[in-house]
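CHAIN AND CONFORMATION:

***
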Amino acid sequence: MKIQVRAEKMMLAGNWVDKEKTFDVYDPQDNRLVAQVPLSTKEDMEQAIHEAEQAFKKHQEWPTHERIKVLKGAVEYIQENKELYAQTIATEGSKTITEARGEVKRAMQTLEISAEEARRLKGETINFDQNEGSENRIGYYYRFPVGVVGAITPFNDPLNLVAHKVGPAIASGNAIVVKPATVTPLSALLLADAFEAAGLPKGMLSIITGSGRELGETLVTHPAIKMVSFTGGINVGKTIAQQAGVKQIGMELGSNSPVIVLNDCDLEDAVSSCVSGAFGAVGQNCIGVQRIYIENDLYEEFTKRLVSQTNALNVGDKLSENTDVGPLIKEDEAKRVESWVNDAIQEGGRLLTGGIRDGAFYSPTVLAEVPEHAQIVKEEVFGPVVTVYPVDSLEEAVEKSNDVDYGLQAGVFTKNLDHAFYAVQHLDCGGVMVNDSSDYRIDEMPFGGVKHSGLGREGVRYSIEAMTEPKVVAIKL
């Protein structure tokens, strides 16, 4: 299928804009040129923010029913063009066509939930007479939009993670300016198509394409930006936290997710879930399985089955219906993963399967006996690599799981309720998936982590809370 996108233009305050300077977007699978996209300047970003501020002021009393109509209209547009969206995701990024179709479905769900949550954006009454002398007062609080939201999104979910910024912003009545990942801007531009078709007021959405170094600081520091929502790496996250000043910040900064497998688990379910969780989206997934701790009695059998199922994965053409694993986003990323694996092996790790790079492709890899100080154990690999360790007990597994600077999600496989709740209470992370891998999420749940995994929570309702402020109204009778 031929991909047709308006790749030559970006959306600036509701208008599709050409720029003299452009940058290239490539298919990482074969380095084929996919599109040339406007290379924005600092001035373009400033204009987008100014127009967003003006649009917000114009629509400060934007009715809830109109916001719902726009969000539902965007869903309908995506539904009508869902294969185009999927093909675009699979072409500019790393996902297989099957994974891309799944992301399109999730993006529609994210916007549907946003429309539903717009109805539920409420306050509550306050009993002022709890305070002596306030018996003659009544009142309430309600939530109002902060104004203009600045969003920076990553490459690994180029449609749904943009929807997770835009949907809640529109649902709560904010304007939003998005800087999508430079390597995957086309899906974000297609999302703007959907909102334009749905009748979103001009200026309420901008998708500004270009270099993060050129545009990021302006977006983060501009005084009209009242809330920054960022999904990406820890180093950029720290910079944003330093630059933003006094404004709301929401950041999801990745992880190094552990899974604990106990002797009393459903073995087949644990193995298949860990394989899917480790190698889906070629491991470029913030909640993907990276470390697995298996009780001693089960270690050999679990590892044998894990390797067998890993070897059965089909690595190849992203657009083939039969492909399980595609390329990483860039060959440089595949080289980085290769380097980390080689370093782990040199430090004493044992390669059980994988470890082969071909351009941007890196074969699904299982490592054992890797020293716990190795980079591939301590940091987020963001690639198709998982390490396995035997442990004597649940307590040891939890201790080792917590021994990193990240804490987004974790998984534990057990049929013992006491064991499950011990893991829930003692794992230091934002979410514990019982009898599932760390790689489980629905778009309605609060999503975020502790330590270096971020600040605040996403998930539509929780993003809306971050994008609004409570205002108290007290009436003296």
